[in-house]
Amino acid sequence: MPKTRGAKIAAVIPGSIAAQIGLEAGDLLVSINSEEVEDIIAYRYLTADENLVVEVIKAGGERWVLEIEKDYGEDLGLELAEAAFNGMRRCSNKCVFCFVDQMPPGLRSSLYFKDDDYRFSFLHGNFITLTNLREKDWERIFRQRLSPLYISVHTTNAALRAGLLGNREAGLILEQLARLQKGGIEFHTQIVLCPGVNDGKELDRTLSDLAVFFPALASIAVVPVGLTAYREKLYPLRRYTPEEAREVIRQVEEWQREFRSRFGRGLVYAADEFYLLSGWPLPEAPAYDGFPQKENGVGLTRIFMDEFYREVKDEPLKTPGREGTGRRVVVATGELAVPVLEELITAAKARARGLEVRVVGIANSFFGSQVTVAGLLTGQDLVRGLSEGKVAPEERILLPDVMLRKGHQVFLDDWTVDDLRVRLGREIEVIPTSGAALARALLG
What we know:
- The protein is α/β, with parallel strands linked by helices.
- The protein has helices spanning 17-20, 40-46, 118-124, 135-143, 158-165, 173-182, 201-211, 242-263, 272-278, 300-313, 338-351, 379-385, 417-424, 435-443; strands at 7-12, 28-32, 35-36, 51-57, 63-69, 78-80, 149-152, 187-193, 217-224, 268-270, 328-334, 356-362, 396-400, 428-431.
- The strands form three sheets. Strands 1, 2, 3, 4, 5 and 6 form a six-stranded antiparallel sheet that branches. The protein has a four-stranded parallel sheet with strand order 7-8-9-10. Strands 12-11-13-14 form a four-stranded parallel sheet, with helices on both faces.
- β8, α7 (201-211) and β9 (217-224) form a beta-alpha-beta unit.
- It is globular, with a radius of gyration of 25 Å.
């Protein structure tokens, strides 16, 4: 017997419309006004109407058809179990720089899933390539106004993009962006930059081509390719050198100046990693025009630093013996962020004279030495980097929660924070990954 498609109800808000008509957790929402509910977007779109015909299969198997009258936009009061009830759409590309292809074996299965789903681009800001959209997907994007979307462009050179993505359809990117623009859809873009492949003159070409889509084009992030030690039999790529990173910054900032004169905003922004790798200071906050791509590592360090300095500035000067001083702390992080954190800690020490803080940059043995960010450190890396002799018994260890699976105390290698406490025999405190949280943890 074929499986009934629909959305499983996870919870019903007490007193809501759904509660009043007898819907319960475990029921299956099949259709609204004869249209299948395939994801949370469809649910929100279809339930906006004032008059609804809702088809539900109860947990016991009974089929209900309910007629509902309500105010326009009023919510039914359902919490659904998943965002996409027919599964997330997989990526069909063979990108030469795909990070998933560089993952070591033995990790949890969800880490090997390659998604390329336009619905999650709209819902969560996931970057997509547009290579797997069917005509009905395009129609839905325009009909339901799924805007903004987040697009991985990488290059506007059709032949080069097809090669980079390993997909003949990838060369249609300019036509696809023009279609989004014509349909009134705003989009943010990213360029994963690979040394000697799509940088230099190719980057100039891409930025020039993309500029014609403003204002539908909301932002462009230029981020360096991420590489691990597991690139056997893959396309030969390498990391940017500090001098090459400085050249990328010069190139991006030159385009920023031109875009500001034309559009009143910078439009293109280099990832923090380029600045940290080059040793150049990060731009001030106004240069990021509201931080449209902070989740993509663009301006996140500037936000972190400014939060920290605001918190420290407001902190009364502490003297030895007062609460919050006289403590010894180790802040563990990825190697890339060490200079930034050392600068911040100098400011913290000026506000709390009894405070002793060290920054320990942890080498990434799990993914390889080219991976230098905190978010990809594992429990095993931390044990190696903080083992006996490297941390004194009285030192408390601070870890940013970016190292952990969201909502869990679990690292990428499935080690837990408790595992770390046992192996190290030290006090460990996990704090939110923000400048304000770090300042509060240091100053008490």
